[in-house]
Input
Amino acid sequence: MFVRRQMESKRKLEPDMKRLLRHLGLAAALAVFASATAGASSEGGTFSTRNGDITVSVFATGLDRPWGLNFLPDGRIVVTEKPGRLRIVSREGGLSAPIGGVPPVDARGQGGLLDVTLHPQFADNKLVYLSYAEPGPGGTNSTAVARGRMNVDSTALEDVKVVFSQKPKVSSTRHYGSRVVFAPDGTIFVTMGDRAALQLRGQSQDLNSHLGKVVRLTEDGRVPPDNPFVGRAGALPEIWSYGHRNIQGAAINTVTGRLWTIEHGPQGGDEINIPAAGANHGWPLVSHGVEYGGAPIGNGKKYAPGIADPIFTWTPVIAPGGITFYTADLFPAWRGNLFISGLRSRALVRLELDGDRVISEERLLIDIRDRIRDVAVGPDGAIYVATDSSNGRILKVVPAN
Output
């Protein structure tokens, strides 16, 4: 039984091995393969990694398509469920009843209640930010962000206000982007998708549209005066960067203070970017992937003058979800690493960095065999991941010893 599982894992990993040979070299690729094929079962257990064994346990169950998770100051987890519910997971793994005050969502397709982010001063002001698919007239919708104040017994959000609504609203149920990240200066980054429809793609390059953009806002949704397109005719002042396809992962690099994002490519070409003010990241003028079916994107170019290149790409894709930088002490060897939740890869992807360069990759939890939607680091230093299913789970990762 164990030998058969090893052989199945090897077959699944062969395309990734070829890509790693190109990106990282033979030695690093073999290291990834060796650690990825060791494992236990879909219910958890002890797994081998390059830096020692880890133990994976089921921390919470019974979640319906969890999408975003964040830690409250007391160690409880606040988590979104895509159909439109916000819940709190106790320190023992129990689920609360749905929290009241959540705005209506359009839960069709990839839409619904998506990310949840806490204000940096949540302990004092109790402010919670939610991103979601906001319903519009005639079946249209858009990515939106609402802010509310958690009440004293954590049962409802009060004074809920929409602080951002993507323009234009369109008829699509895909590519919402939707991560919400606080920057060190107190501003907020919100990631967008191109909304997937072929006729909408060009709006990723249109500065009079929020589609395919990263926007930057003040904490109450106003436009920071130093945004790159403030005062430019024909440009929405909220825009920070453009030319994105579908950014579903975003985090602040705690060393540099800069925003890192990860976005879905089409068939191939998932990419990590460090969006700078006013940068054009190319979609759909360039891509490291191809159309579904194999046709080229645009002129088939991967690079072009004036386009900000990604710092890392995947072909085949991993289909990334949330990301986080590891800054805790429980895994000393992983401090400063970037962790990525993988949907298609069904893995927790660990990247070792040297400044802004990726120098190695390791795929963890592949024997769990779950699509992984989000990842967060708890106050205890453990790594928590949310699995993407109608009976979604939160898994906890700690050193085996």
